[in-house]
Specification:
Structural class: alpha/beta
Order of helices and strands: HEHHEEHHHHEHEHEHEEHHEHE
CATH architecture of the largest domain: 3-Layer(aba) Sandwich
Radius of gyration: 24 Å
Strand order of the largest sheet: 6-7-5-8-9-4-10
Helix content: 40-55%
Oligomer: single chain
Distance between the termini: 65 Å
CATH superfamily of the largest domain: P-loop containing nucleotide triphosphate hydrolases
Number of domains: 3
Shape: globular
Length: 363
């Protein structure tokens, strides 16, 4: 028991250090910050390892082989952060939904690992997805996966097949004529998008999925929304997501506010989602890996056009995929981001990412 108490104490100290680091940064980057351990942090890590080794020595092999194996794996993971490599990026990440901290380590360039582990072999691979290409162009996917050069490029064959869904007749893209630029701290912006969301929900009598990129913005809009004027169930996918989704599917005319996992892989067939609202364009939050990638490009503009925009387009296509799930589905897709409406900086990039369909600026 004494050994376990020491382990708990040192573990609490380690997470307190991590929490202190993430709390001391700008609020906009709260979800992920660089992990640059101090001498004190490294000493606490070593104390955790020592505690685990003492517990491991106390256990008999016949008592719990599985537990001893878990202890060994945990020690191995902690040492990854003790003895850092220059080719890896290390960060502290906060899971907003679960209010949980974690340490993460990942290679700067995953394409090198894929080339050595997969593409240089003589084994054939088939990669398939509905979002790998933008207008038939696989350039970004090839760059990320290391298929642009080497053995992978020599053996690569690509094919892009249009969807069989009738988007021209079954979809309508709504881009408001005017809306404030995204600014989470602006009351004008919050009021503007909340008003749009409320009008759209009323126009389609519910049946609405609202996709956010930020739990913070989702919470603010939900708090601002005048629920008493909306005679439909309003569900928020912040905790117990699977349970919330089941309620959404079973409740008539329901509205679901969601982020994270709901951008891809979720199936909402029929008139369950007759209105899909994408609140902001899904640009990735800058992190160490993206800053490292930016250095490969001669200018910021080159980096934005070659990396930032294609990644946004790919996630936008994934979100759009929640709208039409069968050949008979119909849906209105609304994008409430001033950067993506007509005259906005990314208007044409938005249109390039999505199938051809009618566009309107009037609810």
């Amino acid at each position: 028991m004494i050994r376990l108490n020491k382990l708990l104490d040192h573990s609490h100290q380690l997470f307190a250090h991590m929490d202190q680091v993430i709390q001391s940064t700008d609020e906009e980057t709260l979800n992920s910050v660089d992990f640059d351990p101090t001498h004190e942090t490294l000493c606490i890590m070593q104390s955790v390892i020592n505690d685990l080794q003492q517990i491991d020595a106390f256990l008999l092999h016949s008592y719990s082989k599985n537990l001893k194996h878990q202890i060994a794996k945990l020690i191995e993971k902690i040492r990854i952060f003790q003895f850092r490599k220059d080719t890896y990026v290390y960060c502290i990440r906060r899971n907003e939904r679960e209010n949980r901290l974690s340490l993460e380590a990942m290679p700067y360039d995953v394409s090198q690992h894929l080339s050595s582990d997969l593409w240089n072999s003589q084994v054939p691979y088939i990669l398939t997805s509905g979002t790998l290409a933008i207008r038939g162009d696989f350039q970004r996917t090839k760059n990320v996966l290391g298929l642009q050069t080497g053995a992978g490029s020599r053996r690569l064959c690509t094919s892009s097949v249009p969807s069989s869904f009738d988007y021209e007749n079954n979809c309508l893209l709504y881009l408001p004529a005017e809306i404030p630029l995204p600014d989470l701290d602006s009351s004008e912006y919050l009021a503007g998008i909340t008003e749009q969301i409320q009008k759209l929900i009323l126009a389609t009598h519910g049946h609405t999925l609202v996709l956010f990129n930020s739990y913070r913005l989702m919470g603010k809009v939900r708090d601002t929304l005048q629920s008493d004027t909306l005679p439909f169930p309003i569900l928020v996918g912040d905790k117990d997501l699977q349970m919330v989704i089941q309620k959404f599917k079973s409740a008539p005319n329901a509205v679901l506010f969601a982020t994270g996992a709901c951008w891809e892989g979720m199936d909402f067939p029929g008139d369950m989602v007759s209105s899909l609202i994408i609140v902001t364009l899904p640009f990735s939050v800058p992190d160490q890996i993206r800053r490292q990638e930016q250095q490969k490009y001669p200018t910021l503009t080159d980096y934005i056009l070659s990396s930032v925009v294609p990644d946004m387009q790919q996630k936008l296509r994934q979100g759009f995929g929640r709208a039409i799930r069968t050949e008979t589905d119909t849906c209105v897709i609304s994008i409430l981001d001033a950067r993506g409406i007509q005259g906005g900086r990314y208007y044409h990039h938005v249109l390039d990412a999505l199938p051809s369909m009618p566009v309107t600026d009037r609810i």
